[in-house]
UniProtKB/TrEMBL annotation:
Residues 368-831 form the TonB-dependent receptor-like beta-barrel domain. It holds the Pfam family CarbopepD_reg_2. Keywords: Cell outer membrane, Membrane, Receptor, Signal, TonB box, Transmembrane, Transmembrane beta strand, Transport. This is TonB-dependent receptor. It comes from Flavobacterium rhizophilum. The lineage of its organism: Bacteria, Pseudomonadati, Bacteroidota, Flavobacteriia, Flavobacteriales. InterPro entries: Beta-barrel_TonB, Beta-barrel_TonB_sf, CarboxyPept-like_regulatory, Plug_dom, Plug_dom_sf, TonB-dep_rcpt-like.
Amino acid sequence: MKHILASCFLMLSFNLYSQHISISISPDSTLDELFKQIENQTDYKFAFTEKIDTGNKYFKRSLKQDTIEVKQLLEQLNNELPFHFSLIGNNITVKQTGTGKKQQEHTLSGTILDDNQQPLIGASIEVKGLSIYTSADEKGNFSLRLPTGNYTVVITFLGFKKREQQVSLSKNTHINFDMEVDTQTLNEVVINQNNKAVDVKKPQMSMNSLSIEEIKQIPMAMGESDPLKALLTLPGVTNAGEASSGFNVRGGAADQNLILLDGAPIYSDSHMFGFFSVFNADAIKSLDLYKGGIPSKFGGRVSSVLDVKQQTGGLDSIGVNGGVGLISSRLTVKGPIQKGKSSFMVAGRSSYAHLFLKLADNKNSAMFYDINTRLNFDLSENNSLQFSGYFGNDVFDIGDSFSSIYGNTMGNLNWKHTFSQGLATNLSVFYSDYKFNLTIDSENFSWDSSIKSYGFKYDWQHYLNDTFTLNYGIATTYYDFNPGTLKPDGESSSFNFQQLDKKYALEPSAYLDIEQKISDKINLRYGLRYSMFYRFGAQEINIYENNRPVIYNPVFDIYEHGTVTGSTFYGKGKKISGFDNFEPRAALSFAFNDDASVKASYNRMAQYLHILTNSQSPLPMNIWTPSGPFIKPQILDQFAIGYFRNFKNKTYSLETEAFYKKIKNRIDYVDGADLLGNNNLEQEILNGKARSYGLEVLVRKNTGRLTGWVAYTISRAEQKTIGQAPGEPGIANGDWYLSPYDKLHNLNVTGNYELNKKWSFSANFSLQSGKPVTYPDGYYQFNGINIPNYSERNANRLPAYHHLDIAATYTPKPYKKKGWQSYWVFSIYNLYNRQNAASMQFTTNDDTGLNEARRLSVFGFIPSVSYNFKF
């Protein structure tokens, strides 16, 4: 009997000892709250002396577990609190140890890969029950510092099954996580949009991401998927005009966007004068658009940063994919160079519409081609080398009138080194240029211009613990500007050789960016960037009377060139002018719970490069010019605040943001300015300021057969350019006037519907206010000629812009996983044939002699079909 009673006691004690409970403790919790949670779920009672103040807050971090053994919980408490917890029968005794026993921490690191051993950039990693989150970097790597213990790691990524893995951490541990494709929502060819719920706890705001799968679902003109045009479906982003790949962010100009391809700058984003962008959708993995709250590592532009990442090749097998469209085709090949250690990706694209023109005996011609490449080498466990490259050109001929060749070249060599699990570096050097050539056959001359840049970056990522991360680094870029070279062609040319002054500049910078988790509810990101800009010779700089390159003539009510009184020659390498700026950044998120938060951000940025153009579309012949004696750098201050929420288990998400930004030293041209071929641009411009403000709303449906989003923005973008002295009108009489990029209303509705595994459908509707323009408000006659009189700058608008695009995707064999796989895309751009105005031309009718307005439209109803494949 005695043995039976003893056995029963032991079994009862074991059951009590090993039972599981739920626990939720934050740094604001007291010992009393801990005791109550345990006593309410078990038969245990706590025993302690009066010397222990149970109302105090002893917890250094949050402790949340849906299920944990009492034994395991007490072990964690013993390691983290200045107390010793022990079980005696049905009692848990608590004794003060005097000093807290510091628990040893270890590094849990890993690599997230898909079934082709490709890194899943941005995959979400969560330590279950502890509210600890991070994301995978460009190589799919992540790193966390955690105390000794047992944990459940949860990995999630778009289109892949959620993976949970138990990890026992007693030393530094590295794990490879191979993710499995979610065949319930994803097939081998057509990828449906999955969970894109907003991360309410990260302080990053004013940032939108699009995967290449989402981009390929959006119907586009000519049936060609276009990453840049896909940006136009996001809030705060508008187009620079029909058939233009340029984009404007929160009322900013196209030259105020920093476009990066694998970390290197791209200076022109369009093919065929804006019909296509330079980014081949098959070569791109993802893109991130920062509209505000921009991290300190980015600088040099005052409107946005577009960070584009290229695909990487597989380490195990060769893969080929491509497509054939009505006017262009593309082919991508990727695979291993040395299995398991190195890989390559090469993508090519070319148009062939010019061939059809020749068949029709049309002397006009327009074509483009580009090549993307990326090479990856894993040199050792802690060292890797990557090379990214891009080369693209356009060839454009209009009969015997003129021809043009223009394009980008980029190369970037990147070395990544890991010193330890908590410290990694990224060293890169790059070259990027943009060249534009124009030949006027009828006048027998050619025009060449270019911008070249050579850069160096050295970034450090320093992970201190799960609440504090440092990112810091240095960078420098050297610029070589050729604003124009005029070359006569033959003796019959009426032009003489002319070389506009070449310009040289250096832009060094350093930054510090800090991510800090204050509590489970509050997260911060703050930092500082220090940028410098130096303009160098050789160049001769004019000296103007009263230091005014442009003066006002009150008699004729016009601005004229200032009086040149002399000049100063700066030899090669001699400093002409210099600038420096501190650029603070800060962002905060406060989470009400796991599904709702408010965020706020502030950032200051400086921009030292400018495009001055009197065209409202970013045409390829626009000339970049650096800051200098007469053109100051643009300085931005931007504030934003927003509310973010997920609904119904993240099926729906809501993002709302209000923003206000102001820019100093925004230049604008005077009326009647002559910009092309001008060696003294300072004689055509005035310095002013700009501002924009608005409200953005983004509502998404993230899961199910029907997915998509609705984006709406109401905003205002204005400029103000006053005169240089009392009595001068400046521009628009010195009042605020609409910038060319103002769009009061901007609505986009994007939807995708999966009917079955073979058929899916998508549609996109866009509606926005017409862009501001300047119309003539009357005319007068001079020697029998009607001369228009124009209203104030941008006082009018083009008609409202809207169109509806639809597409259907057909996959003949959706369950085929190997060999040749294919799908068809049938699309219609501008379904109801809206004749959107690209411009309005005011002319006199030759027959009637009456003045009339003529609308120029570029796109109407455009059907297209493309065949896409992979094997």
